Amino acid sequence: MPAKKYTHLFFDLDNTIWDFKNNSFEALQIALDKLGLLDSVGSYKEYFKIYCEVNERLWELYRNGSMNKKVLSVQRFEESFEINGTPLLRGGAVVNEAYLAEMPLQTKLVDGALELLNYLHGRYEMAIITNGFKEVQYDKILRSALSKYFRKIFISEEIGAQKPGRKIFEHAIKSMNAPKKSSLMIGDSWDADIIGAINFGIDQLYFSPDSEKHGSTIYFQGSVLKNNEFSQAHPCFQDANPANSNSNGTSTTIVTHLDQICRIL
Questions:
Q1: Would residue 259 show up in a list of annotated catalytic residues for this protein?
Q2: Which segments in the chain show pLDDT lower than 70?
Q3: Among the three residues 42, 74, 105, which one is the final residue of a domain in this structure?
Q4: Same domain for 168 and 248?
Q5: pTM of the predicted protein model
Q6: How far, in Å, CA of 160 to CA of 182, rounded?
Q7: Which of 12, 14, 19, 193 is catalytic?
Q8: What is the pLDDT of residue 225?
Q9: What is the C-alpha to C-alpha distance for residues 203 and 124, in angstroms, rounded to an integer?
């Protein structure tokens, strides 16, 4: 990381702090069981894989403004059931409502998240920037006992702008009275969190557990950033080294475990 003092940290929520992948798996399984649909999907693991692929594709449309929330909420279930070969006999809205009711009840955090937040708490001003639905995100944060760590929560639906758009970052920075040069965005989505922060002009820390190749590495950096894409053609694995500089003067650092952040900040 650059030899500088950060004062403000902006975190993504899902799959950065709150374990969306595992919590979503549990919540949907419970919801389908309560609706009497669990047995009808056959292998739940196979169905969930289909659902995740459909949901991810539709969320991309939602982020770029090509789909609204209501359509996304319904279509992700109707389409995934159709692909699974078990068409829904009731509307996707019913499944969506049951699923969203179960989501906040799941409170598993990403490994190392609680230890990291306890370490950072009191050392930095911290906030969350998330693209999730407001009725779920607040409840997830409250039930997972995360509120005390963050001064403010910025939800795209309330602000009227999604990551990676500039508006949500600008709103968060101004609301926190945070200098851009001493602000850091921490997230697991390259497209939403990292590209958004690069384009806005603040440093980024990319949490990418799937990128781990050497278990002893504290963090690693690739050789260059070109056209907002991270090149790992000639990756550099080191215990400590300045992160990459982007064309706009910001820097990008990658970690594969959250506890590595404690050694960096």
A1: no
A2: 1-4, 212-248
A3: 105
A4: yes
A5: 0.87
A6: 25
A7: 12
A8: 45
A9: 15
